[in-house]
Design brief:
2 copies of one chain form a homodimer.
Chain A lengths: L2 H29 L3 H22 L2 H10 L6 H18 L3 H24 L2 H22 L7 H7 L5 H24 L15 H15 L6 E5 L5 E5 L2 E6 L7 H18 L16 H15 L3 H14 L9 H8 L13 H19 L8 H13 L25 H20 L2 H7 L3 H10 L9 H9 L6 H15 L2
Parallel strand pairs in A: 1-3
Antiparallel strand pairs in A: 2-3
């Protein structure tokens, strides 16, 4: 090993140590930290992030990048050097003092968001959000963009994606969704999700969720499940991946489908090639690809007829007696009911993407200066009415429902719908090789997990997102797989 | 504020950030981390510790110390500079590479210890412990000492303490303890702790422990209680202080007195003057003083007649029905039974110090090369027989019971007995000003907590340990307070 390689490996280990500490602090901040500790912890995160970013933007790093680009090194180091250079350019574009301020700000605003959400009082969050939007505008300028300022942010979450592609793809999806929803409204099939809203004790929901996570192949020796208001998955490293969920004792769907969703993210993180640990590549390749993994498990597995054919008995073993009388077909239709909802994470598969499109449009307007933060609640509520036909009664069930903007993440939301399209495309390809529904019916998820590990998980960031999709499916992003899947599924359920 | 002051404050903030991250990781490592994550986390701790130590030993730090010693600055900065200089000298004495190796080693050996303890297999730990002893010998040489190599380690935990003083004080205590134990053996009073060994469900023990912590004045908005094999308290900062306890469903004393003990440590950390946060002084002044706080609450409050006079009803409210018939006097004597025990943390007040003296003597021999690690189990067992008249059946209840040596801490144990003497001395002084037993009987602990905060807690590391004791009690360390207290208490209980 050359001296430059050794030094580069050491610097990657240091960056990994900071990443792991920051991830753990972030997990703690949302799970177990006592109230008074919250404020002070943001200083700690800010400082450690700053130290990490100093390493990423150091002269030493630049010299190693330049040196290693001339050397004939291993594929992992070669790709890590590419990633290091991308991050070097990215961070160097923003003055480190501003970045630290931004991280400290968002760490604080996350806790303010919790309070604002509880009190349904947007005015608490507004000054923070105004600063966050201004920061993001500056970041977009620093990063640079071709046509639209918003692309300067989007590129961070889904490298290579343009507004043109996004507008076109979302347009295609929107048309199809509106058409399907219209047909469903005219359907004579009665679907009643009300029959699911029976009391289901938290501990029983938890044991069922744990059983499903276990069947999915989640490794509990390398992870855990906790409880938070806003569920998430965090991969501290491949040996320690933590998911959280939220229990609503009057609606088990929140916890069960939430856990399967976060479990999908977790399987990705747990199955990254161990050789990539302590490099810059031991992470999901993009937000969209990450979301494809969670949505694959939540919707294509967890809401499938095959899954419930094989797991309805297990479910009833955990559920209270009041669930016993529910017939399978009623249950299956109920968990797939299409009904506009205020809350994104409670939305059905079909209308979900409309929630995303609303956020996408508002984000673009905020960044391009076409909308002021103070006018956001009204704009949000208006779009909800226009697209979904329902209007939030308060900001808690309106724009305060999601943590993303408070956490400083603008340009993130589109990746959810993108992940959905990737998931459908991967599902179609996997189905050419494995009879997915048959495996699900047998309760054997191992071949599905192995296929995803082989084709997606293990690569970490070794490939670019669009290359990864092309290598696996033989083509670029194609939204028709999702449209076909939704059409088939809901034609069956609603007998369209 | 001068430029040097500003830079020094910034560097202290950075050190604090590392300290907090390391403390949180340490807490997680003992509470919630999944199994496979453990091994890899030690790399993270090693690296962050190294970064922190680099700051403490940096040329920049040295220049700031030298500059600030010439400036007329605030008392807090002046004292912080003294502390920075002490740490600078301390760390500079040890090559940083060796220190990192040591930290990584001990982080690993802590997890090996857990396994060795579970399997009662000392051979698993032996190679780690051999390395730890060799490291500590080197550290003692690097640090320097006057008469005995062991002092090079001891000084780290209790600055200023010498082997001469320790030998003399422990000698005095040992004589008194042997005399008391002898008299107790001849006593006709029957004490039966067996009546306490009834099944007591974990959740009920927990709710009683939480109620007591609350009455002590533990701030749950600035702390929490969790469960671990080896209980501890960790002050991440004054706003986030976490204690742990261990539940034995067949012996509630483990959890109840353990929680009160750790709660005493926690009150110290929670009540350090907020002005000291993010300086080098926001910590207990020495291990001995820290232990005086935990032992004050555990023994002088928690095992007092007055405490149980006022809390026996609360206890019975939480305890199962099988406890109902126990008479108060039987109960009070039972929780104060003197009976040699294998396990230090289960030992009674009286024989406890003998456990410490055994560890002290063995440590001294290990460091001075008079005892090999491989011969430790035999030496341990022999001393247990000689001093306490009982011999461990296996190493789990022998030398594998404590985490300290596995964690690299040699020279720490004496501070437990020292803390006991400090506690008795503080208790006597406090009693001159407050009728302690009367307040306890009223269930009003606030004056006790306030006295301790005023005289001990708030000062953090602003004073040296012996100065602190002298300022509060008007004299130096005096073991007769402890001897008098034990003599009075056990003369009453056993009618000597």
């Amino acid at each position: 090993m050359t001296s430059a390689e050794q030094k580069f490996i050491q610097i990657m280990k240091e960056i990994t140590a900071y990443d792991e500490a920051i991830s753990l602090i972030g997990w703690d901040l949302r799970t177990y930290i006592p109230k008074k500790g919250m404020d002070h912890r943001s200083d700690t995160i800010g400082l450690l992030s700053n130290k990490r970013n100093e390493l990423k933007t150091s002269e030493k790093m630049k010299a190693l990048i330049d040196q290693l680009k001339t050397e004939n090194t291993t594929p992992v180091i070669k790709k890590s050097v590419e990633e290091a250079e991308r991050e070097y350019e990215k961070f160097r574009s923003i003055p480190s003092q501003e970045l630290t301020e931004f991280i400290t700000l968002t760490s604080k605003s996350e806790t303010v968001w919790q309070e604002a959400r509880e009190k349904s009082d947007f005015s608490l969050l507004q000054p923070y959000l105004e600063k966050i939007v201004e920061f993001n505008k500056k970041i977009a300028e620093y990063r640079g963009y071709d046509n639209n300022k918003y692309e300067g942010l989007l590129d961070d979450y889904e490298p290579g994606l343009t507004i043109d592609v996004l507008d076109q793809v979302f347009g295609q999806l929107k048309t199809a969704l509106i058409d399907l929803v219209k047909k469903i409204n005219q359907s004579k099939v009665e679907v009643d999700s009300g029959l699911l809203l029976k009391h289901f004790p938290k501990d029983k929901q938890k044991s069922f969720s744990l059983a499903v996570l276990d069947k999915m192949g989640f490794d509990f020796d390398a992870g855990r499940l906790d409880e938070t208001i806003h569920p998430f998955a965090t991969g501290i490293n491949p040996y320690d991946v933590r998911v959280t969920t939220r229990y609503d004792e009057n609606d088990f769907r929140m916890a069960v489908f939430g856990t399967i969703h976060e479990g999908g993210h977790a399987l990705y993180e747990q199955n990254i090639d161990p050789d990539l640990h302590q490099t810059l590549l031991a992470d999901g390749v993009s937000m969209g690809i990450h979301e494809s993994q969670s949505l694959f498990w939540e919707n294509f597995v967890g809401r499938s007829r095959a899954f419930w054919e094989s797991h309805f008995d297990l479910f009833k073993d955990h559920a209270p007696k009041s669930f016993e009388a529910i017939e399978f077909d009623h249950f299956y239709r109920a968990i797939n009911e299409v009904k506009p909802s205020m809350i994104r994470i409670e939305a059905d598969e079909l209308t979900y993407s409309l929630h995303i499109i609303i956020r996408y449009e508002l984000e673009k307007e905020l960044i391009n200066g076409d909308l002021a933060v103070k006018d956001l609640p009204e704009a949000w509520n208006q779009k909800m009415e226009d697209y979904l036909g329902i209007k939030p009664a308060n900001d808690s069930e309106g724009l305060l429902q999601d943590i993303h903007w408070s956490a400083g993440d603008i340009g993130y939301f589109p990746t959810y719908a993108l992940g959905y399209m990737y998931a459908a495309q991967l599902h179609a390809k996997m189905n050419d090789e494995i009879d997915i529904d048959n495996m699900i019916r047998l309760g054997d998820f191992e071949p599905l997990k192995q296929w995803l590990t082989e084709n997606i998980h293990r690569h970490g960031k070794m490939k670019k997102p669009l290359d990864l999709i092309r290598d696996v499916t033989g083509e670029g992003l194609n939204p028709t797989y999702l449209i076909d899947y939704l059409t088939n599924k809901y034609t069956d359920i609603y007998q369209l």
